[in-house]
């Protein structure tokens, strides 16, 4: 189910369609994003299995070379991501 469909399904269940309703599309989307990790965690703990590829995401990050003054067990070349790595879910291995 697409996010847009879930937002309108929630608004439909709340019976909130007027301009002055207490739940806006943005508010419902915020709540869906907030509780997504919780729902996924509960579902996979209930089923006692690993998360499926449908719920995994790949990201591409720019890397930059940094000087390695420490004893690097991986060799002389050390790379660091330019962008901040987003938080991951704690019930699955990245």
Return residue spans where pLDDT drops below 50 for at least 5 consecutive residues. none
End-to-end CA span: 24 Å
Structural Rg: 20 Å
Number of helices: 2
**H and E order:** HHEE
Instruction: Classify the beta-strand content into a percent band.
Output: 5-15%
Which structural class do you get from the secondary structure elements?
mainly alpha
* Percent range of helical residues: 25-40%
Q: Give the total of domains.
A: 1
What's the short version?
The chain is mainly alpha-helical and 94 residues long. The protein contains two helices and two strands. 37% of the residues lie in helices and 9% in strands.
Give the topology:
Elements: H1 3-14, H2 25-47, E1 63-66, E2 78-81
Antiparallel strand pairs: 1-2
Written description of the protein model:
- A two-stranded antiparallel sheet has the order 1-2.
- The longest helix is centred in the middle third of the chain and has 23 residues, at 25-47.
- It has 94 residues and is mainly α.
- Helix 1 packs across helix 2.
- It has helices spanning 3-14, 25-47, and strands at residues 63-66, 78-81.
- It is 37% helix and 9% strand.
